[in-house]
Amino acid sequence: MHFQLLPLANSIADVDGFFCDGVHAGLKKDGPDIGFIYSDTLCDISAIFTSNRFQAAPIKHFQKHAITQTNFILTNSKNANAMTGKAGIEDIEEILSSLDFPMQNPLMSSTGVIGVRLTKEKIIDAAKKFHLQAKNADNFAHSIMTTDTFPKSVGFEVHLEDGKSFRIAGVAKGAGMIDPALATMLCFIVTDAAIPKEDMDKLLRKNAETSFNAISVDGDRSTNDSVFLLANGKSEIYEKESFDFALQQIMHRLALLIVKDGEGAKKLVAFKITGAKSKEEAKKAAKALTNSLLVKTALFGEDPNWGRIASTIGASGVTCDEEKLRIAFEDVLVYDRGEILFNKEQEEKAHKVMQKEEFAITCDLGVGEENFTAYGCDLGYEYVKINAEYRT
């Protein structure tokens, strides 16, 4: 099947039947801090959530009502509504029941400080200002931002070889508490494709493995991580191969934007593990590298300290042998199956690679055929400052 992806200028706002906006409720000092996504027809919904055992109230609310279809999502930033017990779920139900919109099975998604009850009155009063025919994806993207420095959105119109087309787009937030098992992130993907619910579930989980489950900023994991896929079927068009590819592109690009926006981060680094004994071991080694504080600080200092990389791989517990291992910074090979190539000339070349904003470090374990790529960033002074002052 041949198809073409054409970018959408306004991401989720350009998908047929979907509307969105964000307004200021006073949760932040300024700018949009609550938002909505609305479909004028009922949508099938698929979702994946954090593996943190202390899941936030919005996730528990979703699970309590076993939501499989909806047409309205209310979002807020600055307050995670996590560790708030049954009261947190009741707050969501009170807020949603106070809104006089044509909602079916509405749900809520939150991000921000843990352990604080929602300011219901502010949210309700501001939400009453929503215009459900609004199409302002930028306002919505800003409304879910916390420590993010820029909004994150991607969208495509997918043209099939028979001339038919459908649209798919996503908006995400995330910059800190990012661990490769989802992240401190929210992601909302909408489509007018007529995709079967079974495919929604399978493709969302499949593509999460190489996107949101393959990134790390700081190795921490939130209580609120959520990825939603909503399909209203309005195009009446669906082709599995092209949809899968478009979904993969959206999730992968949003995941990389999250890493690139890592709190205080200056480097986006791909850790490519090849020649692993199994896919699971390839993932384990790659994710260990994205989480290593010593590796992250070396990235920040632009120091090609390949010994930290080798040590991290060895400590991860995967099958490896120093006589079979190869380590390269882009195309600069510094260690080759027991031979140290790290002379002054190679060090300078590797250092120049690390001065780039984006680059790859490849580690060939030489013990098998499997591979996996995880994505991480550097860790510097700004990260400490942001998180030390998070609630102030």
From TrEMBL:
GO terms for cellular component: cytoplasm. One of its GO terms (molecular function) is L-glutamate N-acetyltransferase activity. It is found in: Cytoplasm. Keywords: Acyltransferase, Amino-acid biosynthesis, Arginine biosynthesis, Autocatalytic cleavage, Cytoplasm, Multifunctional enzyme, Transferase. The record marks 183-184 as: Cleavage. It holds the Pfam family ArgJ. Substrate binds at residues 146, 173, 184, 263, 387, 392. One of its GO terms (biological process) is ornithine biosynthetic process. The active site is at 184 (nucleophile). Its EC number is 2.3.1.35, 2.3.1.1. The record marks 111-112 as: Involved in the stabilization of negative charge on the oxyanion by the formation of the oxyanion hole. The keyword Amino-acid biosynthesis applies. It catalyses: N(2)-acetyl-L-ornithine + L-glutamate = N-acetyl-L-glutamate + L-ornithine; L-glutamate + acetyl-CoA = N-acetyl-L-glutamate + CoA + H(+). Coiled coil: none annotated. Pathway: Amino-acid biosynthesis; L-arginine biosynthesis; L-ornithine and N-acetyl-L-glutamate from L-glutamate and N(2)-acetyl-L-ornithine (cyclic): step 1/1; Amino-acid biosynthesis; L-arginine biosynthesis; N(2)-acetyl-L-ornithine from L-glutamate: step 1/4. NCBIfam families: ArgJ, PRK05388.1. Catalyzes two activities which are involved in the cyclic version of arginine biosynthesis: the synthesis of N-acetylglutamate from glutamate and acetyl-CoA as the acetyl donor, and of ornithine by transacetylation between N(2)-acetylornithine and glutamate. Belongs to the ArgJ family. Heterotetramer of two alpha and two beta chains. This is Arginine biosynthesis bifunctional protein ArgJ. The lineage of its organism: Bacteria, Pseudomonadati, Campylobacterota, Epsilonproteobacteria, Nautiliales.
